[in-house]
Each structure stands twice: as structure tokens, then as C-alpha cells.
Amino acid sequence: MKFTGPKAKRCRRQGTNIYGSDKYDKILQRKPQPPGKGPRTRLGRKSAYSQQLAEKQKVRDIYGLSEKQFHNLYKEAAASMDQTGEVFKQMLERRLDNTVYRAGFALTRLQARQFVGHGHFAINGRRVTIPSYRLRAGDVIELRESSKSSPVFGPVIEAHEKYMPPAWMKVDSHAIKIEIISIPDADSAEQAIDIRQVIEFYSRK
């Protein structure tokens, strides 16, 4: 197993599996320390700013967003009348690519983004190719009929048999269909992130 690829290095640097694939969990178990020579000697106490920056980068990498996309989401969340952190997490979770991944119809968020970009999914009967499309309660996402014969979904459906999707969606694994039951709450969002650190990082500016 390779520990030195760019994705493996990024997971080791962040200390978490930011891509979702099982192989990165195995890599982190075997090599939990950051990459590079003598990494243990560099693990000194980080400043609050460094911790916030690292968490911001980690969350960005988990969801696969550019800095501009991520910062714009923060500004939209900050402008809301509700709690910034909760709104921020909701907006990240409500992305179409994230929803396809969280439903278990892609092995990683990157794969989900590719599926959406290639037009494999429809929302309420309409083909959508925008990974950032923000879903609402009542929306129905389905694999398009023309895509059901694609061999790329075989391994995904096989892996789905043991998958438990979050409570804010209803998933039909046979039809490859997702119904958004409600807006995701804080407890059902990605658990590997500390959104408070991200908010504090951007609040400094």
C-alpha cells in the first residue's frame, strides 16, 4: 500500500480520511503521523491561528471546495439570522454531490462530484450537472434511466448493502433514488469537522 501519493499525504497531514475511501483509513492506521522526515519532531504546540487554519483546510478538503467557494459559503452563512456554524454545515451537507455520497451512491465525494458532473442524476425529473446544487426538503434525486446500465454503479450498489444513510434522507438502493425528508441538523452532518474553528478563522479577517 502506497503512503506517499498526494491524496495519502493530504490525509496524513490532516490526520483524517478526507476522501472517504477505505484505503485511506488503512493508511492512517499504518502511518498516523504527518508525512516527511522526522515528523514527530515537528509536532510542537500549535497556535490558535494555526489550528483554525488547519481545520479550515481540512473541512475544505473533505468537501472538495476551492477557497473561493468555501469562503463564499461562510459569508452566506454569516449573513443568515441563524447560528453561523449550523447554517454553514447545513449548506455543505445539502450540496448535491455530498448528498449522493452520503446516500451511499458513490464511494467518495470526488466520485459523487464526477457522477453529478457527467449528468447521471436528475432532481425532480430534471437532469442536473451542478455538484453544488443545494437541495431542499421534498426533493427527489434519481439515477437517470440512461445511466442505469453504466458499469460504474455496480461496485457502488454492491457496497451499499451494508451502508446506513443519515436520517434526513430516504434511500431506495434498488432504484438508486434519494428523497430529502428534512434539512440536515448538526448531529447528522459530517462528524470529523470542528466548524467552530472555521468560523473563528474567518472571523479574524
Q: What does this molecule look like?
A:
Helix 4 packs across helix 5 (84-93) and helix 6 packs across helix 7. The protein has helices spanning 6-14, 22-30, 48-63, 67-78, 84-93, 96-102, 109-117, 153-160, 195-203, and strands spanning 121-123, 126-127, 140-143, 169-172, 177-180. Strand 1 (121-123) and strand 2 (126-127) form a beta hairpin. It has 9 helices and 5 strands; from the N terminus they run H-H-H-H-H-H-H-E-E-E-H-E-E-H. With 205 residues, it is of the alpha+beta class. The mean pLDDT is 86. The chain is globular. The protein has a 5-stranded antiparallel sheet with strand order 2-1-3-5-4, with no helix packed on it. It has a domain at 95-183: Structural Genomics Hypothetical 15.5 Kd Protein In mrcA-pckA Intergenic Region, Chain A, CATH 3.10.290.
Name a few traits of the molecule.
single chain, 205 residues, alpha+beta, Structural Genomics Hypothetical 15.5 Kd Protein In mrcA-pckA Intergenic Region, Chain A, 5-stranded antiparallel sheet, 9 helices, globular
Gyration radius, rounded: 18 Å
Structural class: alpha+beta
Total beta strands:
5
Which fold name corresponds to the CATH topology of the domain at 95-183?
A: Structural Genomics Hypothetical 15.5 Kd Protein In mrcA-pckA Intergenic Region, Chain A
